Amino acid sequence: MIRWHLFTIGKPRLAYARAGADEYLGRLGKFTTLRWLPQKAGDAARESQTLLDASKGMLRLVLDERGAQWTSRELARRVGEWELSGQRDVAILIGGADGHSPELRAAADVQWSLSTLTLQHEMALVLVTEQLYRAYTLRAGLPYHRD
Predict the structure, then answer these.
(1) Are 66 and 99 in contact (CB under 8 A)?
(2) Confidence class of residue 12 from pLDDT cuts 50, 70 and 90?
(3) H/E/C letters for each residue in 89-115?
């Protein structure tokens, strides 16, 4: 089973973002382990270095608008592939307002784009947790996802 580590810069200031993330983090507990680990905000270079240091030794899944876009079913398939490959620790890295440094993007194992739109990082947090929940319900054959 994958141990997920969700690294964000700071905690959401927007009440609805915190509530949304908490909702899906709670739901995910039925399927997997996910630790949300907010990191201290700073300048973009320092934030990226903090994320790199915190995720050392893990598969790094970096959220970036330049990354690959997947359907929900493709995400579920990737989760299954990582589990079958024996991947134990996966770090999801969500940057702050200024995004990620080129060094962090280069160190990514996977760059994932939630949209071609630039998303506010608190919105990205909610979307990521919901999509992980959706992936696990797809894998479990539950009726949450509709095609």
Answers:
(1) no
(2) confident
(3) EEEEEECECCECCHHHHHHCCEEECCC
Q: What is the pLDDT of residues 102-113, one digit of tens each?
A: 999 999 999 999
Q: From the CB of residue 14, how many other CB atoms can be counted at a distance below 10 Å?
A: 13
Domains in the chain with CATH codes: 3-140 (3.40.1280.10)
User: Three-class SS of residue 14?
Assistant: coil
Which structure tokens are listed for 138?
Answer: 């797809």
Nearest in space to 98 (alpha carbons), one of 117, 125, 121, 114? 121
**Residue 3: both structure tokens together:** 């141990």
Three-state DSSP class for 37?
A: strand
Of 48, 44, 42, 19, nearest to 126 by C-alpha is 19
Is the pTM for the entire model greater than 0.90? yes
Sheet strands side by side (includes 110-112): 33-39, 3-9, 89-94, 59-68, 110-112
Cβ-in-10-Å burial (0-12, 13-18, 19+) of 16 comes to exposed
